[in-house]
Write a structure and sequence with these properties.
Structural class: alpha/beta
CATH class: Alpha Beta
Helix content: 25-40%
Order of helices and strands: EHEHEHEHEHEHEHEH
CATH architecture: Alpha-Beta Barrel
Number of helices: 8
CATH superfamily: Copper homeostasis (CutC) domain
Number of domains: 1
CATH topology: TIM Barrel
Length: 240
């Protein structure tokens, strides 16, 4: 397995700088974490982009929940972020039946054509995870699923994450699986051993709470655990 990836939620340039100092590989840029992360302003994106050279994915979401809402407004936000230099995004919407809102998703990816994107934790609320993956399988740019395996978090979703990781490369399961949502350090060894190689943290990077900035030391602890657990797993595999 290659070096495990660590993605950290950033709200501003200070978060971005601390995350990079701690060893993060990528940032997810959002605002309004009380609403579980919404689209940041162009100005915030530009300031964060100037503060770090880490890869950066920007949330496209205008309200709490997983309904798309005003898709035209979302498209306008995406266009503005593209004009500022954004080149990767996070999005994902469900319809009123809990199935993927393909109209909204396809409208947005037409705007961000050529960009890579993550389908976020809407996958944890869908009525059929496997069907969702297969419906989205041919959409251009989709390279990651951010998922806890369950709406309530990784504690409950761990078996699902491991089962989906075991299907990597099969139709609908080509995108990278990134574990996030109630993720703890003690989950890491089992996930790595099961083939999960990407991890997403938000509150875990802020020991003092969401009102405090990202802690470089907290991110460093995660980076070191990922490296150590990955090394232990590699040593235990007989083909290494």
């Amino acid at each position: 397995m290659s070096r495990p990836m660590l993605e950290v939620i950033a709200l501003d340039p200070a978060d971005a700088v601390a995350a990079q100092a701690g060893g993060a590989d990528r940032l997810e840029l959002v605002t309004d974490i009380a609403a579980d992360g919404l689209t940041p302003s162009r100005e915030t994106f530009a300031a964060v982009r100037a503060a770090t050279d880490l890869p950066l994915r920007v949330m496209l979401r205008t309200a709490d929940g997983f309904a798309a809402g005003d898709v035209d407004a979302l498209c306008a936000l995406a266009e503005g972020l593209l004009a500022e230099g954004a080149d990767a995004f996070v999005l994902g919407f469900l319809d009123h039946e809990g199935r993927p809102d393909l109209v909204a998703v396809e409208m947005l990816i037409a705007v961000i054509e050529g960009c890579r994107w993550t389908f976020h934790r809407a996958v944890d609320r869908t009525v059929d995870r496997d069907a969702l993956r297969k419906e989205l399988a041919d959409l251009p740019g989709l390279d990651t699923y951010l998922t806890a395996g369950a709406p309530t978090g990784v504690d409950d979703g761990l078996p699902v994450l491991l089962a989906e990781a075991a299907q990597a490369g099969q139709p609908g399961y080509e995108p990278r699986l990134m574990a996030g949502g109630g993720l703890r350090l003690d989950h890491v060894p089992r996930l790595l051993a099961g083939g999960v190689d990407a991890f997403h943290i938000g509150g875990a990077a802020r020991p003092a709470g969401w009102d405090a900035p990202v802690s470089a030391d907290a991110v460093r602890i995660w980076r070191e655990e990922l490296e150590a657990a990955g090394g232990r797993g590699a040593a235990a595999r007989p083909d290494n």
